[in-house]
Design brief:
The protein is mainly α. It has 7 helices and no strands. The chain has 2 domains: about 70 residues; about 50 residues, lambda repressor-like DNA-binding domains (434 Repressor (Amino-terminal Domain), Orthogonal Bundle), CATH 1.10.260.40. The N terminus is likely disordered.
Length: about 150
C-alpha cells in the first residue's frame, strides 16, 4: 500500500486525535506547551489532505470548536448565547396528541416534572427547553412556499 492511499486515513486519525486532545484540555482546564505543538502538528497533517472547499468547512468547524471550548472554560466575552423564549409545554404536548404519560415516556421526561411545567410551577431549562422547542417545530405544519 502506498503512502498516498494512507493520507485520508491518517488525516482522519490526526483530526480525531486532535479532538481527543482538545477534550482532555477541556477536562483539565490547562494546556501544556508540548500538547500545543503536538496538536498543531496533527492538524497540519490533516490539512495537507483536505481540498480547498473542505478546508473552508474545516476552518469553520475548528473555529466553532475553539469557541465552544473557550465558552465551556468560562470565557464568554464575544460569544452570543441563544435562549429560546418561554415554552408552552401544555400546548406542545396537546399538539402531539399524546397524554402526559405517553409524552413523558416518548421523550424520556419525568412525568412529575412535565406536570409542573404544564401547571406553570416550573419552566423547562437547558437541554429540556431546547428539546421541547425541537418537538414544537417538528409538530408545526410546514411553511407554505409563496412564489
Amino acid at each position: 500500500m502506498s503512502d498516498e492511499s494512507n493520507e485520508p486515513l491518517e488525516a482522519r486519525v490526526s483530526v480525531q486525535t486532535a479532538l481527543n486532545m482538545i477534550g482532555g484540555i477541556k477536562r483539565q482546564g490547562v494546556i501544556h506547551p508540548s500538547d500545543l505543538d503536538v496538536l498543531e502538528s496533527l492538524l497540519t497533517l490533516a490539512l495537507k489532505t483536505i481540498d480547498e472547499e473542505e478546508l473552508t468547512e474545516f476552518d469553520s468547524i475548528m473555529q466553532g470548536l475553539t469557541e465552544a471550548v473557550a465558552y465551556a472554560g468560562g470565557r464568554r466575552e464575544g460569544s452570543i448565547t441563544h435562549l429560546p423564549d418561554t415554552v408552552n409545554v401544555r400546548a406542545i404536548r396537546a399538539a402531539s396528541g399524546l397524554t402526559q404519560k405517553a409524552f413523558a415516556k416518548r421523550f424520556h421526561l419525568d412525568i412529575a416534572t412535565l406536570r409542573q411545567w404544564e401547571q406553570g410551577r416550573r419552566q423547562p431549562r437547558g437541554r429540556s427547553r431546547v428539546l421541547l422547542r425541537v418537538i414544537e417545530r417538528a409538530l408545526a405544519p410546514p411553511a407554505e412556499d409563496t412564489p
